[in-house]
Amino acid sequence: MRCPFCKEDSDKVIDSRSSDAGRIIRRRRECLACKRRFTTYEKVGESFKLSVIKKDGSRVPYDREKVVIGLQKACYKRPVSADQIQEVADRIEEDVFRCSDKEVTSQFIGERVMKHLRAVDKVAYIRFASVYREFTDAGELIDEVSQAIREPDLTDQPELFPD
User: Fold this and answer.
1) Phi and psi angles of residue 109, each rounded to the nearest 5 degrees, phi first
2) Which of 118, 144, 149, 157 fits as disulfide partner to 125, beta carbons 3.0 to 4.6 Å?
3) In angstroms, what CA-CA distances link 111 with 16, 34, 47, 96, 137?
4) Comparing C-alpha atoms, which of 27, 5, 9 is closest to residue 17?
5) How far is 98 from 20, CA to CA, in rounded Å?
6) 121 and 70 part of one domain
7) What is the count of structural domains for the chain?
């Protein structure tokens, strides 16, 4: 694998994990030349693509990068690492592929993003929710913030990223 930083072709695998119910292998690698670390994903090429049904009824191919970009925007200038963002994206993808193999609604994806983001950083969660839920006034935003403060995380998992 070519290093994305120095372009050398020598690295070692530090960690491998499967995700997406075994459909994807995530590998942490370290470049032997520059010593920087990067992540690669291996997946089997499939003849079908998962379609996302948008609010207007149109269908578009599922694109993990759109989920990652949404997470990055929500986590901008927050203490959330790039690895944490990728892990959240992995968990969202696992949920999506576990529940559907051909089509999924954008609403389902948005709800999964909010669920997993809330466990990582509540400010990032509020940022995402304010755009996703299209709040029309400050009262709706205040209600969401109040609810996030009052209620414990609603995830069915232990803490995603313990220190």
Assistant:
1) -65, -45
2) 118
3) 28, 40, 27, 11, 21
4) 27
5) 8
6) yes
7) 2
Handedness of CA 146, 149, 150, 156 (dihedral sign): positive
Q: Do 58 and 122 share a structural domain?
A: yes
Q: Which residue has the tokens 């119910």?
A: 21
Structure tokens at 131: 């755009």
E runs forming strands in the chain: 11-19, 24-31, 37-43, 51-53, 59-61, 103-105
Neighbours of 105 (CB within 10 A): 13
Q: Any idea what DSSP says for residue 160? A: S
* Token pair 């400050």 in the structure block, residue: 138
For residues 37 and 52, membership in a common domain is answered with: no
- In this structure, the answer to whether residues 90 and 76 fall within a common structural domain is yes
| pLDDT, tens digit, 9 for 90 and up, residues 133-152 | 777 777 776 777 777 777 76
Whether 163 has a pLDDT exceeding 50, the answer reads no
Model confidence at 21, pLDDT cuts 50, 70, 90, reads low
Give the range of the structural domain holding residue 25, as residue numbers without chain letter: 1-46
> Are the C-beta atoms of residues 103 and 51 closer than 8 Å to each other?
yes
Burial of 120: CB neighbours in 10 Å, binned 0-12, 13-18, 19+: buried
